[in-house]
């Protein structure tokens, strides 16, 4: 059985990993990262400039900082369904997400 403490520790670890990854991809290619993360230019600028201490402090929140970006169960189900063309699954996901506004994620 999972305790509340274990769940919070898992949330903190996920948040820290997510923030480190977000900062890394923002620094490599800001426009691609903004699309992949679903964030605005303003939020991207803030995230890319965070110090290690700021990232660590933000990661310790009790809420997940990353979220599902699909607006409905149909999109998620379509991406999870087995397909004969696995090589185009990433492109399909990008097309679905491209139709959503950035404001939805900030």
UniProtKB/TrEMBL annotation:
Keyword DNA-binding: yes
Major localization listed first in the record, in broad terms: cytoplasm
Quaternary structure and partners: Homodimer; disulfide-linked. Forms a heterohexamer composed of two FlhC and four FlhD subunits. Each FlhC binds a FlhD dimer, forming a heterotrimer, and a hexamer assembles by dimerization of two heterotrimers.
Gene Ontology molecular function, alphabetical: DNA binding
Gene Ontology CC: one annotated term: cytoplasm
Coiled-coil segments on the chain, per record: none
Record's comment describing the protein's domains: The C-terminal region contains a putative helix-turn-helix (HTH) motif, suggesting that this region may bind DNA.
Keyword Nucleotide-binding: no
One example of a Gene Ontology biological process annotation: positive regulation of DNA-templated transcription
Keywords: Activator, Bacterial flagellum biogenesis, Cell projection, Cilium, Cytoplasm, Disulfide bond, DNA-binding, Flagellum, Transcription, Transcription regulation
Source taxon at top rank: Bacteria
InterPro entries: Flagellar_FlhD, FlhD_sf
SUPFAM superfamilies cross-referenced by the UniProt entry: Flagellar transcriptional activator FlhD
Family affiliation: Belongs to the FlhD family.
Record protein name field: Flagellar transcriptional regulator FlhD
Signal peptide (UniProt feature, chain positions): none
Pfam families linked: FlhD
Role noted for this protein: Functions in complex with FlhC as a master transcriptional regulator that regulates transcription of several flagellar and non-flagellar operons by binding to their promoter region. Activates expression of class 2 flagellar genes, including fliA, which is a flagellum-specific sigma factor that turns on the class 3 genes. Also regulates genes whose products function in a variety of physiological pathways.
Subcellular location: Cytoplasm
């Amino acid at each position: 059985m999972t305790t509340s403490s274990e769940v919070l520790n898992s949330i903190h670890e996920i948040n820290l990993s997510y923030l480190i990854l977000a900062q890394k991809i923002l620094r490599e290619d800001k426009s691609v990262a903004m699309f992949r993360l679903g964030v605005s230019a303003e939020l991207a600028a803030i995230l890319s400039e965070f110090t290690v201490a700021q990232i660590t402090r933000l990661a310790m929140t009790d809420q997940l900082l990353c979220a599902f970006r699909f607006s409905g169960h149909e999109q998620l189900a379509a991406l999870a369904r087995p397909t004969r063309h696995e090589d185009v699954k990433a492109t399909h996901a990008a097309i679905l997400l491209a139709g959503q506004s950035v404001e939805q994620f900030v």
